[in-house]
From TrEMBL:
Entry superkingdom: Eukaryota
Pfam families registered for this protein in UniProt: SACS
Domain Sacsin/Nov intervals: 53-156
Name the UniProt record assigns to this protein: Sacsin/Nov domain-containing protein
Annotated organism of origin: Digitaria exilis
Gene3D superfamilies per UniProt: Histidine kinase-like ATPase, C-terminal domain (3.30.565.10)
Family annotation (InterPro entries): Auxin_embryo_med, HATPase_C_sf, SACS/Nov_dom
């Protein structure tokens, strides 16, 4: 037994620490020594490699099997998802990557340990608990398709490598931590940003040569995959491809729902389930299945080693209620071993069981005894399911039932080895009443297949018409005429008998006649046994007094000639419902013309109403008077035969009946008739011996000659009624009688001598020995024993006086040197409770003789001190003179020898202050002594010692809430935790370290972190708290899950003041110093060494997160009017760096955004602020005085804060682009309406028309020539109006307040297409490049909008071409090169149209 307590449990290592420990401890990575087991591991891994690549393993089935064996949280729908992508997220050079997502509970440390070993599955040997995997490969099958599988689960980010590790030369099972690639964000991006990532993700960068095979397996995943899985409810396959048309995998989503309706009969249950599957490009398909599951015991001859712990087969049959789900019309598997095999049975149902399979899972092993046993049970399971399907249908036998016969395996299976299953089903179907038959009765009718026939359709029509006309189809015979016209009623014997029984009165003759009627009806087989028995029970009977009796408990044969009347004289049990039949039931006679011979009717009643006689009568729980007086020999033997008969039939004789037989004086003995319980039946051996005692005692010996020496056959019955058979019983009887005489002083001298002569006769030689046998004490040892007996009697009666005790001790003092020793007396003195103590009478070994050394222990223990007072039972101070004798007898005198009393009698006072230092030291001394003896502590000790009695720096505490202080081993001070107060107990306390540890005190200060942490929040001084934090950090302490959310962080405010807060309100640092008012920043108060501890132990965040920043912005919206550039830049820098869907959602709730006005950053409603995506519009609105309409941007010195990224962020939180928010007024105005018409050809030049026609002729636009010409014609008819005044257009935005902000812009020209008029500002005197590009731009936009008003997406492209043409003055050669560079040309039909149009415009040319 350890003398020190187990150290406090260390916190569980983090996932990364766990993986590093495996690498270091198991594979010796990072150590300078060689792993002694490295060679064995290498061989095991080589074996795994051979196992993997020698078997034809279907990796997809292995992964589904693993997922089915996983455990799932109760709140999720167990799902398995396969996703294949061309993205190389592991950067391993793979052309395709397969990701498997599973919402199981996730990998535990045990699972990680298992997966890093060979042959150490956590599921091994647990098949009887529902695990379906068994091939011994499992997860490691992924190495067939991937060289570097990755696992992300429950904080574990690890990968394995097929190639041997460079540091330990082992492959496959050596884990490696995934540092950065891939990251969880990479996985989330592929899985879907708006979906919660499942707990476990397996990433398999595929081997190039395996990509096609994997895609093929995924595309051929069977829709019925989930049919017999008990956990997985959803399974899907999808491809992550930006171009769906180029997908190479057929996607599918499968889900399953069941309606479980258990049928708890014949170890079976049934339910229906619905399976649905949706393939890419197809409608969702569904199919229902009726499922029957039945259990069968495994036979001994079918047992195999792989299933040695399985005692039951569970066979499941699935009957599809529609067209089965399949993919690409592939053949459907008919045999499942939880997952589909490739066996096509052609049976119209599916067989599922725990079959043993080939390594490829393609087929079951037909030569396996296990599988043979399962297949032998399939016909029985099918028949049970089929009968339930057909016969339990509520409207059976409706004509819809035949559809269920489609489930019969009519056609032979393509697998000849399954033919016994089909033939077995056929045999059972032929033997069952299973075929529904049409009937016009309400009773359901089913017949055997060989007993039914089919009616022609025409005959069915006749029957239907007859029924319509009211013809009764039940009787198509003469009986119909007899009933309808002759009024004849047909009745059965039972119906007639029932009517007669109800009409019978107390008249004797009719009652006996009815009994004869039943007798003859049974004799001629006119009535079934069941109905006969009912009538017999209802029939009244005539008793010996001539009364008709209907209520009875038992029926006795007539008295005349019966045995019972010979034994009992009369019926003593009439009140108990026992009736004796009338003698008339024995007589012969004619009744209704039928003759009944003598005793025939009585025999009929014996058979059907159990009329009986002794010894067949079952007696009631009642006595009968005959046995109270002597019985004749015949009656006595008859009584014994009766008891024997009932006992042989297994009838338990009632207590009162048996008691009357035992106590009645009916048995002849040597002293007359005696009760059996007072009689003896002797053997020849000892009967003559007891004859010599007859002069002393009359022994009632049964007279066997009187009973013709027939009693030997009733030995067991005589014992049952109390007769005694043993010599010892007779001897005890004699002794009892002699003692009775002795008590009455009735023994004479002659009696005594006679007794001695009897004893001598039994084998003794002298009177001396006879006297010994009478109890006369002859020797010292006997005298010692006699005294011992007297002593015991006095102890039992508590009659020992003080004088007696002292005299006894004085005798002990003299006799302890006597030879021989009175051993019996001394042993009795040691064991008996004769010493009166403070807790009652105790034996010497349970008593203490009080001395002053016991005084400190008195307040804390109930100790058995010997009573040395002079009161009742007190032994006085004289007892101290017998100290040595008492010690010899076992009394405890010294404290060091009495630890057991203190430990067992410990009673800690409710006020611990009365426990002095001496008391505590004495207690610890006792505990130390007790432990050194090797004894285990008693049951109640721990409850007592666990009270608060130890004085610590934190007040009185329980031992398991204290720590033994050791300044040399810790940086803590005494006041920092619940350290035992050395000022009170002294330095010698350390010598009791083992005793303190045994009662729960933590004696190693470095193991007391939990207790120190418990009292942490009682402190308020920062230096003290920092010191405790440093101690907890060195101990690697963490709070448990329940306490993690407590206020663990101290935030100082003044030297001696502050507050305790939760970790969620703290961060380690705030590099931008934005959150001093919102969050507690710990690097302001604590040493940098502690910051990592705050993070690991309490989960303190390293810095503010997106939610904190969003809350900060909301605070600024409410309270800050102007922001500094540094603060605003820091804020949006964080947002840009940490932008995500969640950040977008949080910031979308903000009301205001930053704008820059007069060099200051202010906040305005986001509805009134715009993104300047159109610079021309931006310039117009920026010219407005006192208007800040555009969003703020940080200085260009911040590279991660590009305007494009900020525009995306601003737009994501609801800021509008100016180009979308602005509203344009299409009407235009002039300062005055003075226009002049100019020649259209000067504006609508031939080059312009060529550009437009070539653009419209682009094959990508697919515009017919006729339509192209029609679109251009609108320009041919235009009238050009010129003015010297500016042509303006207006723009406006509406603010949240309702205010409308307007601006105007000069557009230089305007095409009113409906009126075929083109208004333009005069260009005379315009020569600058700016004016030329402005005109070209506005001209190109206006013409393009007019031509392509129905093709808005093409306006910008045409506008660019026209702008170039305008700047080039539409010069032919330049235009030709420009259009060719855009791969555009003028087709002949367009050239012809252009020429004719030019002629119309310029006939003179």
């Amino acid at each position: 037994m350890s003398s020190s307590p187990a150290p406090a449990a260390m916190p569980a290592p983090s996932p990364r620490e766990h993986v590093e420990r495996i690498r270091r401890e198991r594979y010796f990575i990072g150590r300078d020594e060689q792993n002694p087991l490295a060679e064995d591991m290498h061989e095991a891994v080589n074996y795994l490699s051979q196992e993997l690549y020698s078997k034809d393993v279907h990796f997809l089935m292995e992964l589904v099997q693993n997922a089915e064996d996983n455990k799932y949280p109760c709140e999720v729908v167990p799902s398995l998802e396969f996703l294949i992508t061309s993205k190389d997220i592991t950067r391993s050079g793979a052309s395709s990557t397969l990701l498997i997502f599973n919402n199981e509970r996730g990998f535990s440390s045990t699972n990680i340990e298992s997966i890093c070993r060979v042959g150490k599955s956590t599921k091994k040997g647990n098949r009887h608990q529902g695990y379906i995997g068994e091939k011994g490969i499992g997860f490691k099958s992924v190495f067939l398709i991937s060289s570097q599988p990755h696992i992300f689960s429950n904080g574990y980010h690890i990968k394995f490598n097929e190639k041997p590790c460079a540091e330990c030369n082992i492959g496959y099972i050596v884990p490696e931590w995934v540092e950065s690639t891939p990251r969880l964000s990479d996985i989330e991006a592929i899985y879907g940003c708006f979906k919660v990532l499942p707990t476990t993700t397996i990433i398999l960068p595929l081997k190039n040569e395996k990509v096609d095979a994997v895609k093929k397996q995924l595309s051929s995943l069977h829709p019925e995959m989930l049919l017999f899985l008990s956990k997985i409810r959803k399974l899907s396959v999808r491809e992550d491809n930006s171009i769906p048309e180029s997908s190479t995998v057929t996607e599918i989503a499968i889900s399953i729902e069941n309606n479980f309706q258990s049928r708890k009969s014949m170890h079976a249950e049934s339910y229906t389930l619905n399976l649905s599957a949706e393939e890419s490009g197809k409608m969702e398909e569904e199919c229902g299945y009726y499922v029957w599951r039945q259990k069968f015991p495994v036979k001994a001859e079918n047992k195999v080693e792989k299933r040695d712990k399985i005692d039951e087969w569970v066979i499941t049959l699935a009957f599809p209620l529609g067209e089965r789900l399949s993919r690409e019309k592939k053949l459907l598997p008919g045999v499942y071993a939880f997952l589909p095999t490739e066996m096509i049975t052609d049976f119209p149902f599916i067989i599922q069981a725990d079959f043993l399979l080939s390594s490829s899972r393609e087929a079951i092993l037909f030569d396996s005894p296990w599988n043979k046993g399962i297949l032998e049970c399939v016909p029985t399971a099918f028949m049970s399911a089929f009968v339930t399907l057909v016969k339990s249908t509520p409207d059976a036998p409706a004509m819809s039932l035949p559809s269920m016969f489609n489930f019969l395996p009519v056609n032979p299976s393509v697998i000849s080895l399954l033919e016994p299953v089909r033939s077995g089903i056929k045999e059972k179907v032929l033997a069952e009443d299973i075929v529904p038959c049409e009937s016009y009765a309400s009773q359901k009718i089913f017949c055997k297949a060989g007993e039914v026939s089919r009616l022609k359709t025409e005959f069915w029509t006749i029957l239907h018409n007859a029924r319509e006309f009211g013809v009764d189809l039940k009787n198509l015979s003469i009986t119909n005429w007899l009933q309808k016209y002759a009024k004849v009623e047909f009745v059965s014997v039972y119906t007639y008998g029932s009517t007669v029984v109800e009409s019978l009165s107390n008249a004797k003759r009719p009652v006996i006649s009815f009994a004869h009627f039943l007798y003859h009806s049974d004799k001629e087989s006119h009535i079934d046994d069941y109905y006969l028995q009912q009538l017999c029970c209802a029939m009244p009977l005539i008793d010996s007094y001539g009364n008709a009796v209907t209520s009875r408990n038992s029926i006795m044969v007539p008295a005349s000639g019966s045995k019972w009347v010979e034994l009992m004289g009369t019926n003593p049990w009439r009140k108990d419902g026992y009736i004796e039949l009338s003698a008339d039931y024995k007589l012969a006679g004619y009744f209704a013309g039928n003759y009944t011979s003598e005793y025939q009717l009585l025999e009929f009643l014996k058979e059907h109403l159990q009329a009986s006689d002794v010894p067949q009568i079952n007696p009631p729980n009642s006595s009968f008077p005959t046995v109270s007086s002597p019985l004749t020999v015949d009656n006595a033997l008859l009584l014994l035969e009766w008891i024997q008969n009932r006992k042989t039939c297994g009838v338990r004789l009632p207590d009162q009946f048996l008691a009357s037989v035992k106590g009645g004086s009916w048995l002849m003995t040597s002293v007359g008739y005696m009760p059996p319980k007072e009689s003896f039946l002797s053997s020849a051996k000892w009967g003559s011996i007891l004859h010599n005692a007859s002069s002393l005692v009359d022994i009632p010996m049964i007279d066997q000659q009187f009973y013709r020496n027939k009693l030997d056959i009733y030995t067991d019955e005589l014992k049952l009624i109390g007769v005694r058979f043993e010599f010892q019983e007779a001897s005890a009887y004699i002794g009892h009688c002699l003692l009775s005489k002795s008590a009455r002083n009735a023994l004479t001298t002659e009696n005594v001598y006679s007794l001695l002569r009897l004893i001598r006769y039994l084998g003794e030689d002298s009177y001396k020995e006879e006297l010994k046998k009478t109890g006369l004490i002859m020797r010292f040892e006997e005298a010692s024993n006699a005294i011992t007996q007297i002593f015991k009697e006095m102890v039992s009666k508590s009659s020992l006086t003080k004088a007696s005790v002292l005299a006894l001790l004085g005798s002990y003092r003299q006799l302890r040197t006597h030879s021989p020793l009175p051993v019996a007396l001394f042993n009795c003195m040691r064991s008996e409770k004769w010493l009166h103590t403070s807790v009652g009478f105790r034996s010497p070994s349970e008593a203490i003789l009080f001395y002053d050394t016991w005084q400190p222990l008195s307040p804390i223990a109930n100790l058995p001190f010997i009573n040395v007072g002079d009161s009742c039972h007190g032994l006085g101070t004289e007892i101290y003179s017998y100290k040595d004798e008492l010690e010899e007898l076992g009394v405890t005198v010294e404290v060091q020898n009495g630890a057991r009393f203190v430990i067992s009698g410990l009673s800690i006072p409710s006020d611990p202050s009365i426990m002095s230092k001496a008391t505590v030291m004495s207690l610890l001394t006792c505990i130390k002594s007790y432990i050194e003896c090797g004894a285990s502590l008693p049951k109640g000790f721990q409850d007592e010692i666990s009270k608060k009695w130890v004085k610590t720096s934190m007040g009185y505490q329980c031992p398991d809430e204290c720590i033994l202080f050791d300044a040399k081993k810790s940086s803590l001070c005494m006041e920092d935790g619940p350290f035992i107060d050395e000022a009170i107990y002294g330095s010698e306390l350390v010598s009791f370290k083992d005793s303190l540890a045994r009662i729960g005190v933590i004696v190693n200060v470095n193991c007391g972190q939990d207790l120190v942490a418990t009292h942490l929040r009682s402190h308020k001084v920062r230096t003290t708290i920092s010191r405790i934090y440093m101690y907890l950090m060195n101990c690697k302490w963490k709070p448990n899950d329940k306490e993690k959310n407590n206020n663990w962080i101290w935030i100082p405010k003044e030297p001696e003041d502050g507050e305790w807060v939760r970790s969620e309100f703290c961060v380690l640092s705030d590099k931008n110093n934005l959150f001093s008012q919102q969050i507690h920043v710990l690097d302001k108060y604590y040493d940098k060494k502690l910051l990592e501890f705050f993070s690991l132990a309490f989960g303190v965040r390293h810095g503010p997160d997106s939610e904190d920043y969003c809350k900060l912005w909301i605070t600024w919206e409410k309270s800050v009017h102007e922001l500094t550039i540094s603060d605003c830049s820091a804020f949006w820098m964080f947002v840009a760096t940490n932008w995500s869907k969640n950040t977008q959602k949080l910031l979308s709730d903000c009301v205001k955004v930053p704008v820059c006005a007069d060099g200051m950053i202010t906040l305005s409603k986001k509805e009134d602020v715009f993104i300047p995506d159109d610079l021309l519009l931006t310039d117009l609105f920026k010219k407005l005085p006192q208007q800040s309409l555009f969003i703020w941007y940080p200085p260009s010195t911040m590279p991660s804060m590009s305007r494009a990224r900020l525009n995306s962020i601003y737009e994501g939180i609801g800021v509008q682009r100016i180009s979308k928010a602005v509203m344009k007024n299409d009407s235009f105005t002039l300062e005055n309406g003075c226009f002049r018409t100019v020649d259209a050809i000067k504006v609508i030049e031939v080059g312009l028309l060529r550009i437009i026609l070539m653009f419209l002729a682009d094959p990508a636009l697919d515009i017919p020539a006729k339509e192209r010409h029609k679109m251009v014609s609108c320009l041919l008819n235009v009238t050009v109006q010129e003015t010297d005044q500016p042509i303006t257009v207006s723009y406006k935005v509406i603010l949240s307040s309702g205010e409308v902000v307007n601006v105007k812009d000069s557009r230089m020209l305007r095409w009113e297409r409906e009126r075929s008029e083109l208004y333009m500002q005069s260009r005379e005197g315009v020569s600058g490049y700016k004016e030329k590009i402005e005109f070209a731009t506005y001209f190109a936009e206006e013409i393009s909008r007019g031509i392509l008003f129905e093709m808005a997406d093409q306006i910008a492209s045409l506008s660019d071409l026209i702008k170039f043409g305008s700047l080039l003055n539409f010069e032919d050669a330049a235009i030709g090169f420009l259009m060719k560079s855009k791969n555009l040309q003028l087709f002949p039909e367009d050239d012809d149209f252009l020429k004719s149009s030019v002629l119309c415009l310029c006939p003179e040319n």
